[in-house]
Amino acid sequence: LRITISPLEDEQNHIVGTVGLFRDVTESERLEQTRREYVANVSHELRTPVSALRALAETLADGMAPDEDTKKRYYTHMVHETMRLTRLIDDLLILSRLQSDPHAVQREAFKINRLMADVAERYAILAGEKDVRFNFTLLSEDVVLWSNMGLVEQVLIILLDNAIKYTPKGGSISLYASLEEDMVKVSVSDTGIGIAAEDISYIFDRFYKVDKAHATQGTGLGLAIAFEIIQRLGERIVVESHPEEGSTFTFTLSRNPGPGIKSL
Ligand code: ADP
């Protein structure tokens, strides 16, 4: 609670009383604190690849790379750092667009089986490249949803990218859906490294990475974007995970009828 006391003066500048202003600042201060932390995080995350790029470029420019092989490696590092920077900027743009425009969600009718089959086709190949098995099960009934296909696809991509990233060779990943009376539940499950109990409540936070040393390729923004999308769609996402056994992320898609589609 912030209390501001100011003197109350009359036209001749005589103090005739006091005015007290009471304001609950806890909420606004908390928001301000979160904003400050976020800006600090963004700056830090952007600075890391930029510093690496600069060090590599300077070494090359000064002719300090001892041989051609080293030069080549430095150029490759530079390409990777640039890609990381691009990913980070893209993710930040997606997040800020989602947050700044509350009316951004346009709804359309689409078949969930079709979307899942489409995404599964691509991920079966990506998983295969890493020697990870990929299973998928469609709904037996072809349900038409009234939601945003592009955004649902983005959530699937984030969850499947993570499933592949955090599942070692020889493991498996599953994409499946189940039908309930008023909703479809979509799950992405893996037999990967899992998430410890002390980390699980933070993984949807921006920039949170469980193992900072090993997660250098990630931005720590994927799940934050997925969470934001799910919220925008008015849906829910949950995770169940056991270290060294695997993780299952499940989100809902309500079967709310679109305009012109009469509910039964
Ligand atoms: P990142 O870009 O680091 O993958 P995310 O926001 O997508 O960022 O995920 C946050 C963190 O949650 C990851 O760094 C990882 O530690 C953990 N995580 C996410 N998905 C999985 C998974 N399927 N298995 C194990 N850990 C996961």
Strand order of the largest sheet: 4-6-7-9-8
What string, H for helix and E for strand, traces the elements in order? EEHHEHEEHEEHHEE
Q: Low-confidence segments, ≥5 residues, pLDDT <50?
A: none
* Separation of the first and last Cα atoms: 52 Å
* Structural class by helix and strand composition: alpha+beta
Number of strands: 9
The kinds of small molecule bound in this structure are:
adenosine-5'-diphosphate
Main sheet attributes: strand count, strand direction, barrel closure: 5 strands, mixed
Please count the helical segments. 6
Spatial extent as radius of gyration? 25 Å
Q: Helix proportion of residues, in percent?
A: 40-55%
Mean pLDDT: 89
Q: Which geometry do the CA atoms define?
A: flat
What is the beta-strand fraction?
Answer: 15-25%
GO molecular function, one term: phosphorelay sensor kinase activity
Protein name: histidine kinase
Main location: membrane
Keywords: ATP-binding, Coiled coil, Kinase, Membrane, Nucleotide-binding, Phosphoprotein, Transferase, Transmembrane, Transmembrane helix, Two-component regulatory system
Report on this structure:
This protein starts with a strand and ends in a 10-residue tail after the last strand. The protein has 6 helices and 9 strands. It has 264 residues and is an alpha+beta fold. Adenosine-5'-diphosphate (ADP) binds at residues 162-163, 166, 190, 192-195, 203, 208-211, 215, 218-224, 247. This is histidine kinase. Residues 1-37 form the PAC domain. Residues 41-257 form the Histidine kinase domain. It is found in: Membrane.
